[in-house]
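During the second half of the funding period, the structural biology subgroup turned its attention to how the target accommodates small molecules. The most pressing case was cobalt (II) ion, which had performed well in the primary screen but for which no bound structure existed. We therefore specified the complex as follows and requested a full 3D prediction, including the ligand pose.
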Amino acid sequence: MEIRTVPTAPIAGQKPGTSGLRKKTRVFMEPHYLENYVQSIFDGIGGVQGKTLVLGGDGRYFNDRASQVILRMAAANGAAKVIVGQNAILSTPAASHLIRSRGTDGGLILSASHNPGGEDADFGLKYNTPNGGPAPEGVTDRIFEATKALSEYRIAVAQDVDLSTLGTTRLGELEVEVVDPVADYAVLMEQLFDFDAIRALFASGFTMRFDAMHAVTGPYAREILENRLGAPAGTVVNATPSPDFGGGHPDPNPTWAKELFDLLMSDDGPDFGAASDGDGDRNMVLGRHAYVTPSDSLALLTAHAHRAPGYREGLKGVARSMPTSAAVDRVAAALGIACYETPTGWKFFGNLLDAGRATLCGEESFGTGSDHVREKDGLWAVLLWLNILADTRQPVKALLEDHWRTYGRNYYSRHDYEDVETEKANALYDGLRAKLGSLPGQSFAGLTVATADEFAYDDPVDGSRSERQGLRIGFADGGRVVFRLSGTGTVGATLRVYLEALETDPSRLDRNAGEALSDIARAADEIAGIKAHTGRQAPDVIT
Ligand code: VG1
Ligand code: CO
């Protein structure tokens, strides 16, 4: 097999963000773009000579071509073996599981997650370390440094590998094992949850709709929910992954999964609704007339996890990203377990999970997971919910209301301003950062600022420090607003404004969240000048 060494030059901007490198698909398709980045990953991790890697993606446009390029480059760089999902498909949690269970040296995941797919949409590539988790900052920094020093890449001259047939083939010296993307993952879920109890729940007439959003979770949800748990055929909708996700945003939230949301808010909807994102690591959970915010979901799962066999022994601790509401903190306090606050992005949970300090983790962005893998896991969260529903035989709405009565309710909402001109977003953000010190004591929309700072995180396991992780402002009444700029977008800037208010008065637990947070939203605008800076009168997406 001929190996070519191709001269190249660094390409600017190949800097991994919150979760890998994400760019317009057409950018990834430009000459050398993908190759440069793959070689930089290999160089950044000390080469792949003799190593075993996992490879798969969410099936979006260019997933198939990119996989073949990566295989040829792995062969040319001396890798021993690549384990690939059939047709180059693996959900992010399934990839994490394979990386761990097969004792590999890490993996490459092709996905831009919740970003739309297609030739004119987004593509992404992420390296996960041997623990199955997204590369921590130290590793992504080395990869970024490698992109800036690159002068050549190595690629084999070869025909495409047949990725449609299960089994082992060779690409020169490289062994390529094509595996069923669902099988191992489904077995893992059977070990964690009481499938008999969930089967009995479905047999009793419990109804559910799972919206796979034309993305990667479809085959997983069909196999697990319909084939193994006996949910009626048709429970999983939009179950066939398509390269452009049916033209939609594969983002499970009330805006992009509106049809499902509206169905669950209607009187004749099913008992339970759920959706997952492009690469299968996010989840939205709904009950009839009940929207469970991701922050509440994490809190409720923490309170009830012991109902599932995999968590019967109790939890070692929990962790949430800083912008996620403090609902889980009070459950952790009641359980007497540790609760960690990390920066946004799943990579920050890895050390806590590896060190056995946390069992459950969650983010407000529809991400929940546990130490069973090192990624957030959409279907896992849905199955834990089902296990709890099977055990309690309570409707979601009743469980949620009971939770609020016990712990209080953190009214919560995130306002996203998308595709803002970068200079305007930076002006807003830098302006706010500059005046943080002067805010305490001042009042906005009738609310007095008690604290204001920029979040920095000291990892308690390896001592590394991550700075500039969001601006947070606490009010005297316990409310909070957080400002961040997104690290997953591909055009302009996305400003995220996270609003939170704690309510413990039992007579005020069933308010509309928008109403409950309206003062904090006004204060946020007064403090940061959102309308003035962006020219926007309202957020593009409210979750
Ligand atoms: C967003 C979310 C963050 C999540 C990340 C990756 O990042 O806010 O919580 O971990 O997406 O999720 P950002 O930087 O845009 O706010 V996924 O499912 O897109 O890999
Ligand atoms: Co995702």
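Two results from this model are relevant to the next phase. Residues 185-407 form a domain with the Alpha-D-Glucose-1,6-Bisphosphate; Chain A, domain 3 fold (CATH 3.40.120.10). Residues 92, 113-114, 277-279, 281-282 surround cobalt (II) ion (ligand 2) (CB under 6 Å).
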